[in-house]
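Mods, move this if it's the wrong board.
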Amino acid sequence: MFSYRHAFHAGNHADVLKHVVLLEVLQYACQKEAAVFYIDTHAGAALYPLLKAEAQKNREFESGIGRLWGQSDIPAELQAYMKIIRELNPDGVLRYYPGSPYFAESVLRDQDRLRLFELHSTESRILAENFNKIQMHAMSNGQKRISRGKRVMIEKKDGFAALKSQLPPLSRRAVILIDPPYENKQDYRHVIEALSDAVKRFSSGTYIVWYPILQRPEARRFPDRLKSLPGNEWLEVTLTVSQPVPDRFGLYGSGLFVINPPWTLKARMELLMPRLVSLLGQDGSSEYSLLTGAGKPVKRTKEDD
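Not the wrong board. Structure tokens:
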């Protein structure tokens, strides 16, 4: 098993982009009363202490959430994102950064379901511990939340393999986040295979794939491979914050590929992305891209509609 732990990278510029888009998708999905099924194939630990050694080693959060934390003029499209983080740090000191499962749990309702998969033994254990703390905190505030065992299920499994057993969901409404570390370059192939299979099983789900922007050949080819997959409408948003670093392997940007995006997402990103470039850009080469398109049609069933 590889040793990747997200605690070393929590709250960086890639996390900001990923979590803002995830919130936009989930909030849109919750506008309808019908239950939402949320699947996170690589859930991580859900909560990251920024003052501990892992986050302090490279202090990557300073290039992301750290640049937003002290801002008084936050764009409207970032308000929901910042509200969750401020509530997690009520004394005004940036001590914790939430992961994708935390953001999802904050938005989703009692009728919704979360299925969280994490293969790394340490991350999986911390994930379970953190959700127990979330449940206890909710209860102390008088909130009656259906949590572990029904509303939230956490499993120490390979998320790529586990995804097959989750689709299609009974509710026929789902948001699926596929967010591997790409530490192993085979993850690029695994994403393509898992996504291709998932869309065939459940064509109407909303799929969000995060990917790093790197100088590595497999990373540079990856966006085109995603666009060539069978599927329905898609949206791709990227943010680069600097020029590539000299060693050719550093993360200087990231992208999100969304299949079946909310119809509102493009307009929201058009408003937000210039501000993110301004807030998170590290040099004059910082930029964003926003593309939409459609893949080859996938045969849909009446249940998908």
